[in-house]
Amino acid sequence: MKNIMAIVLSAGEGTRMKSRLPKVLHQVCGRPMIEYAIDRLEELGIDKKIVIIGYKGSLVKRALGKRVDYVWQKEQLGTGHALAQCRKALARFRGDLLVLGGDTPLLTTPTLKKLIETHREKDALVTILTAILKPPTGYGRVIRHGDETIRKIVEEEDATIIELANEEVNAGTYCFKREAIFQALEKIRPENVQEEYYLTDAIEVLTKKGHKVSAYTTDKSDEIIGINSRKDLALANKIVRERILNRLMLNGVTIIDPLTVTIDQEVEIGQDTIIYPFTIIEGKTKIGRDCIIGPAVQILDSKIANQVEIKNSSIQNSIVESEARIGPYAHLRPKSKIGKRAKIGNFVEIKKSTIGTESKVSHMSYIGDATLGEDINIGAGTITCNYDGFKKYPTFIEDQVFVGSNTNFIAPVKIGKGAVIGAGSTITEDVPPYALAIARGRQRNIKGWAKKKRTAKAQK
Ligand code: UD1
Ligand code: CA
Questions:
Q1: How confident is the model at residue 69, as a pLDDT?
Q2: pLDDT in tens, 22-47
Q3: Which residues are catalytic, by number?
Q4: How far apart are the first and last CA of the chain?
Q5: Among 22, 108, 184, 314, which is least packed, fewest CB within 10 Å?
Q6: What's the 101 CA to ligand 1 centre distance in angstroms?
Q7: Can you say how many angstroms the Cα of residue 77 is from the centroid of all Cα atoms in its chain?
């Protein structure tokens, strides 16, 4: 898009959030809300983007990096004051300014496009994005003359009872002709309940002079929701979540109960995968085709291949290859890799370990810092003792090893291909290929011992 620049107002603290984090960094479906605004601007093809930062501005800068330029508003004296800080940066720019708040993450690209088109078609000095909200509580009200032309915007705190009843609200998103706005901003005064320089007051400055102010009223009123409190944040999360789930369902993913499923914006899921209730999929997770995920699964930043089944489990930063079975009640901790058709069963924890193709860790085990080959069977209750209180050590288990139940591997240790470990062993030394290792106390049966004891007790 040509002859247009965008400015995102993001210097405010967001007092109503009651948070130490600047408001625009609070997350909606796994991403800081301000990133939604920047995404839309990129989709519109607006190259020059300025974010106005102030309260903990360096944190905002760190989050957005080089995607945008920054202008500081050292003291947060209101939205009008914020925009005025750009005067210098825009000194040589002649064109339209798209101004939006960093706290309205639900706006969509088509709506912003319509706003800009309306602004250009009507050749207005200002075009305001508005919506009809029932109730309009919390927003600036758009006041029109009898002939429907815009007169002013009045903030809720400063409105009369009659103005409060007006259901047309200001989205806080505007298109300005650059020349017009900075002149108007010079005229505004902080003479209102909040003692702030309101950007909205610039509207009346212009209309009073007889300038043309127009509006684009969207019928998608959900889109204009501004996030001021944690309650608003929950509502935004709900709406974005619905959008994400709808997109996935349209692309061929079954979501049995969308009300109990949360999936982050950047997650990818393949066709015919089924998501069962109470499942949370976060970060940059990628899930393949024909998988069954859930119920009650939480996956973060992981890669799951095709035809994988995961039940009641938690997975972080891991890779699961095709046709593997995970859970119920398994925990894959970061840097784990589960091979094709492998099985990680009930109450098993895997940490920073590789489990080869078709290997099975089916019941109540801890496998940490280990490399397991293919076709291995790990018996119930097997533990890799990878930590001596000072350092971590690795365990290597080669292909086709059979490990009897309740085995401890005191790492570092290596088990050769095809070896068998007797149940209950505590393995402290390497085992050669195809050997049988048993490391436990021999059993002794003492004939008649219990009978004697019982008789003695009965005679007392
Ligand atoms: C603002 C509008 C209101 C509109 C609503 C839509 C004004 C005076 N009011 O109210 O008409 O209905 O948005 O959501 O503009 N900011 C700064 N510097 C400041 C103050 C604010 O950069 O000194 C930024 C904030 O970080 C925020 C945005 O401007 O991203 C809006 O500020 P906020 O305080 O949330 O305004 P509202 O009260 O919601
Ligand atoms: Ca707001």
A1: 98
A2: 999 999 998 999 999 999 999 999 99
A3: 363
A4: 100
A5: 108
A6: 7
A7: 31
